[in-house]
Amino acid sequence: MALSHTHKKIGSETHSALLVKRFKRAFSSSVSQRVSGSFSFSFGSGLEMGRQGQRWPVWILLLGLSVCVSGITREELFPFGRNAGDRALDEGSDETQEISLQKPVTFYSGQFSQIYINTNGFVALEKPAGESEYLGNMPAGFGMIAALQGDLDTSDGVGKVFFRQDSSPALLQQAADHINRAFPEDDVVNPISAVVVTWVDVASHRAESRGDGPEPSGRRNTFQLVIASLETQSYAILLYPREAMQFQSTSSYTMHAGFSKGQDKYFSSKQAPYYRITDDTEASVRNLAEQTNSGKRGVWVYEIGTFPHFTDVAPGEVPDLPLDSHQFQTPRKHSHQHPVYPDVQQENLDGVYDRPEHPPPIQVQTVQYRPERPAVVEIENEDNIEVDVFTYNSGDCGGQKCSKFGECSSFQSGRCCQCKPGYYGNGVQCVPDGIPQRMNGKVSGRVVVGNSQVPVDFASNDLHSYVVVNDGRAYVAISAIPPIVGFSLQPLSSVGGIIGWAFALQQPGFKNGFSIIGGVFRRQAEVTFQPGGERLTISQEFKGIDEHDHLMVDTRLEGKIPEVPQGATVQIEPYTEIYQYSTNLITASSTREYVINLQDQSTQSRSFKFRETITFEGCQHDEVVRALPSTQMLSVDQVFVMYDRGEELLRYAMTNKIGDVNGGQTEENPCFTGRHGCDTNAVCRPGQGNQFTCECAAGFTGDGRACNDIDECRETPQICGPNAICNNQPGTFRCECQEGFQFASDGQTCVEVQRPVDPCRIGTHDCDVPERARCSYTGGSSYICTCLPGFMGDGRSCQDIDECQVNQCHENAVCFNTPGSFTCQCNPGFYGDGFHCSTEYEKTRCQLHRESVLGAGPRGPRPVPGQYVPTCDAQGEYDPMQCHASAGQCWCVDRNGLEISGTRTGPGRFPECPGHDVPRPIGPTPDPNISPLPPGSHILFAQSGKIEYIPLEGHNLKKNEAKTALHLPEKVVIGIAYDCVEKMVYWTDISTPAISRASLQGGEPVHIIKSDLSSPEGIAIDHLGRNVFWTDSMKDRIEVSSLDGSQRRVLINTDLVNPRAILTDPTNGYIYWADWNRDAPKIEMAYMDGTNRRVLAKDGLGLPNGLTYDPQTSLLCWADAGTHKVECMNPQQGSRRQLMEGIRYPFGLTTDGRNLYYTDWTRGAVIVVDRHARREVDEFQPQKRTRLYGITTAHAHCPSGQNYCSSNNGGCTHFCLATPAGRSCRCPDNAVGLGCVEREGWN
Hints:
By secondary structure, this protein is mostly beta strands. It has 13 helices and 80 strands. It folds into 7 domains: about 55-315, no CATH class; about 435-665, Green fluorescent protein (Green Fluorescent Protein); about 675-710, Laminin, CATH 2.10.25; about 710-750, Ribbon (Laminin); about 805-840, Laminin; about 860-915, Irregular (Invariant Chain, Chain I); about 940-1225, 6 Propeller (Neuraminidase), CATH 2.120.10. The strands form 22 sheets. The chain has an 11-stranded mixed barrel with strand order 22-23-24-34-33-30-31-32-26-27-28. Strands 1, 6, 7, 8, 9, 10, 15 and 16 form an 8-stranded antiparallel beta sheet that branches. It is globular. The protein starts with 14 loop residues before the first helix and ends with a strand.
């Protein structure tokens, strides 16, 4: 392990060797995923320490430690309970117990002889602050080991917090086993003491508005923290049994796991180092029981301190779960329904919990059925049928696999891949000549600026690069760089200089980096600044080309740089670098000079020395590469650097040429100087003297001065073959197999996926009836039987739990047992919910206030005309926003109903009032109604009185940047749609009712339809014909209107019962809609003029709420709240396939690329589904949990395509409605006397 000052000598390692090992551990930890929501780790290569012979005992030991894929269970926790020698924390919701330790705990670089154990899931290293200071916050302001910090409660006597110190050999060996399994490459660790803290069946604390005590949901969590210590070294072992982790957040606060050193208070208080295991999402908490860093599901091990020197918390190094050849068990998905726990009596808590003698809490039992042929059970990846544009040829070529744009060439000593004519690269990766190249990646690390004592941390900052290869010009941008370091990073154009070298303009007889080594290599560079001697290390890993044809790179910066004053600019002089080439290794060095231009017009001249090493895997037989000069010179000029303070963006640009190290004869041909004027998508072909020609690159057409993309998919519709979909890309195209098909071994032919039989679907399982049990298909011929909540058994036979036997109700209430549940009812003369009953109904302050204003009269309570009447929420508390109907004014109030100063607004405007449990923001407040949408694509969704947005980054949600785009107080927004042309959002409101719109660039909401509506729900935009379509579930019709609402026409008003979701496909001239009629649900389509109506699906539907259409794949998908499935089909082919099952209560659905996004009423979240992998990959839960309704994608640019209505309204006088073969001209229903001309099916 990292440096250990034990009295026993570890192996034969010296003190300096142990220091190097600690550096390796710190390096590995620093490049790991710091916020482990995704729980993926990567490690640097570091240095091999110790002698190989000393590793054998460790590996032999580990063979017996990592063979089971199943998760930790309650029975496998460290022994706990009174018979294990534990003491119990006092019952309550915020109890703390100080413990004096027999052996100190080492945390970061300090040693502690006292610790503080708290109800709320943590151990403190100093007396903890009040709950308001740390609940929901990570890091805390004091030293904390958070096993699972949250607002927890044991006051009901069921939950307990046990703790003890233990140095028994059996327990220390159990701790050593976990630690040594987590760190397999380190020497065996043998702890000498341990502290065991176990939170058993703890509940979430009830919110203040509902009284003290735990939540009555019945959900309980059990988890454990073991601090295992040597003399000067400590580890934290965290254990989360899957079946005992039943909630992931408390009513008011997010739960957290991690380590916080607290506050450094040497000169001034500032946040000390911390390490987060979870982020701010419930998904990361759920993953604690599902994943690992120690090779055992649900077990997490960390080195948390060494004395006297410490670098950083080090996570375990075994994130993968080993396969068990004797079990084929898939992780059970968490359910949000949980069995109710019985009241555990005190005498039961006195047993030893590792082998419980008392009846355990009721648990859901599962039975795993093994397949008859275990060898064919794995089907996890068969649905991932996306195509890599750089697919490899099937044959092996001297140990390489060539690009599909490459071929295998024979040389005297062997074979190597080479790119075909018209392409360049190393043969394994090839790109077309002349095409601009894009590179994306992340920047991380830690940099100290000048004399500052506080480093600046980078965590996954975006890096984007664009290279115009036919003139060698490279552009690089790095985002989210704070000003404190941004100005000082300006001289480091070398961060992007490697990209310039890779695609430098080639002089005759010389090759740029990509032509020699391709796009997979590592680069290590060291920058030494003069005259101060500051040093910075640049580590870059180039990972090749992704499915979007973009190069990928990860960059890490570590070290110190001299300060460049804020506001200063930097000018970098032209420079040259000498690159020396050998087998699998390239080195280079140079001296860079730069000038700092200060704001007072003065200048400073500085320089730095630069050395770099590039390592790669080459082909030793390639005679073409061996014939290249062993040294080449990169010439860099026109260097431009800039830091944009407002955008926090760092930009570099430079022109690069590769050629003779001695200068040689200067080539004046424009192709070699870059002064040719060819299109950026063209190749410059040199001729005699100064003659040259411009030739459009492959996949483009034109004269070379202007090149346009060739749409191969449109020109040759069958280019991808049967059962495949063609997607056009700039300069190329991509073939993807349709849903239900995958590529055969030739990588080109799409063949139908042979899917195994699902016993749950066809009914050949032996689980109990659906009213008592659930059958869950797990792949192959395997399935799991699980008793439903409220029942107990093995899944094949389930019996009802009589909850009334454990006296769940109030003493003045009667309990009624029902199948799978129970109800409580207060006795006559008592009021309450059955769990709490009292003789009097106590009215709240708001209710009393309201009654006093209303008074009493012969016709019931009525207010005095013009008097303000307060509004109370469902719990009887003051609504945060109060309004005076007569005066037309609204304002915010505190929990006591007192007006908050400065919040009163005039008629027609509404203040943004935070909930009484949410702290008010500090600083100026934005416009109360509109928040302009930032650039890029976003997911928009509706949530009770507002429309929110989540920015998209590729296929990922940027959840920390989610905000409210539009505040619509007192409105119930159901459907939303986005007009990509005018950047407007349209929505339906069933409270008014109305159809409205607003510009997301700033502007007031405007009603476009207010009359003749009953319950408008689904809404869709035709961005080509400039029309809006909607459904009305009470009038049972589908209508169309111009975008401003001036023209309106009913399209369909027959055979509709509950129409909801509606979509448009303007390019092909179709509309699609779903009717959730409970007696006969269906999904239909028609031409956009309402003709040629037909049913697409009607069998096997329940409540089809959400509907979405992907024009790229021609897939229509729907989310069904009745069948709890997501299904898709190609409307033109009729093939219908299930994408997912087991979802909860979906409402809205939208798509973007490979992902589907849907809103879920039960989970109160936006769920992300990978359509190819057929599984949930992410979720976003808004801060305020209410029902979520419509959802749509706001694309940064309109999708490609056009129709007859795109230009001049298709020649129509009024409505132009597209059809597959043309368009129909239609008149609005109120077109009397407007001179309207109708034409049907016109083309």
